[in-house]
Design goal:
The complex is a heterodimer of chains A (about 375) and B (about 200).
Chain A lengths: L9 E4 L3 E2 L5 E2 L2 E8 L9 E5 L25 E2 L4 E2 L4 E5 L30 H14 L5 E7 L1 H12 L4 E7 L7 H16 L8 H4 L4 H15 L2 H7 L19 H14 L4 H13 L10 H4 L6 E7 L7 H13 L3 E7 L13 H18 L3
Parallel strand pairs in A: 5-8, 5-9, 6-7, 9-10, 10-11, 11-12
Antiparallel strand pairs in A: 1-4, 2-3, 4-8
Helix pairs in contact in A: 1-2, 3-5, 3-8, 5-7
Chain B lengths: L2 H8 L6 E5 L5 H10 L2 E6 L2 H9 L4 E3 L14 E7 L8 H11 E9 L4 H10 L23 H11 L1 E9 L12 H7 L2 E8 L1
Parallel strand pairs in B: 1-2, 1-4, 2-3, 4-5
Antiparallel strand pairs in B: 5-7, 6-7
Classes of the chains: A alpha/beta (about 375), B alpha/beta (about 200).
Chain lengths: ~375, ~200
């Protein structure tokens, strides 16, 4: 993590928020970015929810890495989420490390929360987003959209604040984290905990960061975002500069050096305690359990127009899990579109160039805009 | 829009809730939304068609008549439409039951296997009849449950469905439809359309 992060645009809430765990967190900051402009009727706002390791820099170069925004192909002028038409808001989740209150934030005594940061849930993250939306003077969101963990937040928005959501687009998401997903997260967390530099989460005291542990966590997780086909196409069994002197344990395969690069570049922009906090929030997410085991009750009487999108090669959040959500929405007689996009790029497909996905998204939003009376 | 869909649209009251099973490219639900102010939604089994429809702003979900009707609550729709699909589903009787559970009325169109050309060809050639309506050879047709107009009427009677309206048309819909005598419709109608509700 950069020791002197640049200041991020944020809203501060002195009154704070009482979390689901019962702890009151105050004050809280929510860092956010906006694109496009809010119309006079304040009816064209689109909230984009980011995934586990994403942040609010959706459609502009990232201030830490300098890389393009994580969804620049989707959000922008003339893009599927057209900023000439919609006012796009994206905030860093509560518990994050890009300016919103999280484990890096100082507590009263001036030291960071670190491992003592209270457990936050998807519902807490969404309530913090709702405070920001209130502060921006927006009563009803035209659309809430997000992929992966962002899609979980979309479902949570529809369940918690249904009347404030005209349209909802959960992409490559699920109504709960499966045992397999929890298992992968646990391996990531154990990799972090096993790094001696983790120092029980108080690494600022030793002046280190658990870079190796966090990098391994990211490498492992990154595999789950891809598909075998995508990995084979991209790397196959190609060797990186066939070096006669290399031993079996050097990074001789291209896929290895790719993963190492993914790991090391991630460490520069992400905080390990944030990673632990957010993966836990994902694991705890279970929208049906919050409604007596019946997912359809989460959406009872919903007037929101839903568009569920899954990708055929996504094995982390497979189509079957989107279908469970679609069927629950049918049970509550909600308005649902449900599309599985053919792609061999795995879970990551929602972040990549997928023309069918783009046309589906643009068309769904245009159709909804017509119903909502947005020009 | 296909001729039979136009006849279906004419039977649907404006401003109602409609589910179109097998909505294809979504032209019926688009018509019902734009012209009749209906809350019209679709289910479609072909993913390319679903993507096409959603990309045109229409609420369509991937699913099929045999498996995806049971989730809807009772009386969720005023009309449930099944056009030219009944003969291709696995359990037509169960699909009809589900349609009239989740909807007040069912609109069902199907190709009539009692058409004189079908009868003639079977009798004269002794082989599975092929006509412009029944155009695919027996080994690759999706139509596993063909029926005649009279067969369908008998099933409706058995199940206690009231036929509120019916008509039969030729494939291109050029001639005016048969609406009076069932036996004539069963002989000359290539496509039949029924508006049903529970008796």
């Amino acid at each position: 993590m950069d020791p002197s992060p640049p200041p991020h645009q944020h809203a501060s809430f002195a009154e704070g928020l009482t979390l689901e765990c019962g702890q009151h967190l105050a004050p809280i900051d929510i860092a956010y970015r906006t694109y496009g402009s809010l119309n006079a009727a304040r009816s064209n706002a689109v909230l984009v929810c980011h995934a586990l390791t994403g942040d609010q820099y959706v459609a502009e170069p990232h201030p830490v890495t300098g890389k393009p925004g994580w969804w620049e192909s989707v959000v922008g002028p003339g893009r599927p989420i057209d900023t000439d038409r919609y006012f796009v808001v994206c905030s860093n989740v509560l518990g994050g490390c890009m300016g919103s209150t999280g484990p890096l934030s100082p507590r009263d005594n001036g030291t960071p929360w670190g491992p003592d940061f209270p457990p936050v849930t998807m519902a807490d993250m969404v309530r913090a987003q709702a405070m920001l939306i209130d502060a921006l003077g927006i009563e009803r969101l035209f659309c809430v959209i997000g992929g992966s963990m962002g899609g979980m937040q979309v479902l949570q928005w529809a369940a918690s604040f249904g009347p404030r959501v005209f349209a909802a687009v959960p992409i490559a998401a699920a109504a709960h984290h499966s045992a397999q997903n929890i298992a992968f997260n646990e391996v990531s967390r154990q990799a972090i905990a096993a790094d001696p530099d983790f120092a029980a989460g108080r690494y600022w005291a030793t002046g280190t960061v658990p870079a190796r542990g966090l990098a391994v966590a990211r490498m492992m997780a990154h595999i789950t975002y891809l598909s075998e086909t995508a990995l084979s196409r991209k790397f196959g069994r190609r060797l990186r500069g066939a070096d006669a002197g290399a031993t079996m344990f050097d990074d001789i395969f291209e896929v290895e050096s790719y993963l190492r690069h993914q790991g090391s570049s991630f460490v520069r922009r992400f905080d390990a305690n944030s990673y632990l906090t957010i993966t836990r929030a994902m694991d705890w997410f279970d929208l049906a359990a919050d409604h007596d085991g019946d997912l359809s009750r989460a959406f009872a009487g919903s007037r929101t127009r839903f568009c569920l999108v899954s990708f055929s090669s996504d094995w982390l959040f497979p189509t079957a899990q989107s279908r469970v959500v679609a069927q629950a929405l049918n049970r509550s007689a909600a308005n649902v579109s449900f599309v599985e996009i053919r792609s061999d790029k795995g879970h990551d497909a929602f972040l990549l160039e997928e023309p069918d996905f783009f046309t589906t998204l643009a068309g769904f939003l245009s159709g909804c805009a017509e119903h909502a009376g947005i020009k | 829009m296909r001729v039979d869909l136009r006849f279906i649209a004419e039977m649907i009251e404006p401003g109602t809730r409609v589910l179109d099973i097998g909505s294809g490219d979504g032209s019926l639900i688009e018509h019902l939304f734009r012209e009749n102010g209906c809350d019209a939604r679709g289910i479609e089994i072909d993913m390319a068609a679903v993507t096409h429809a959603v990309a045109h702003g229409l609420p369509v979900m991937h699913g099929d008549a045999d498996n995806d009707l049971s989730q809807y609550p009772d009386g969720a729709f005023d009309y449930v439409v099944l056009s030219r699909t009944l003969q291709a589903v696995e359990r037509p009787r169960e699909v009809l039951r589900q349609m009239l559970r989740i909807g007040t009325r069912a609109l069902v169109s199907f190709p009539n296997f009692g058409h004189w050309q079908v009868r003639w060809r079977l009798v004269m050639s002794g082989r599975m009849p092929m006509t412009r309506t029944w155009a695919r050879p027996w080994y690759e047709t999706p139509n596993i449950h063909p029926c005649t107009v009279l067969d369908f009427c008998e099933l409706c009677a058995q199940e206690g469905y009231r036929v509120e309206r019916w008509l039969a048309i030729d494939e291109a819909g050029r001639k005016s439809p048969w609406r009076r005598y069932l036996w004539l419709a069963n002989m000359f109608g290539e496509q039949a359309l029924f508006l049903l509700r529970k008796a």
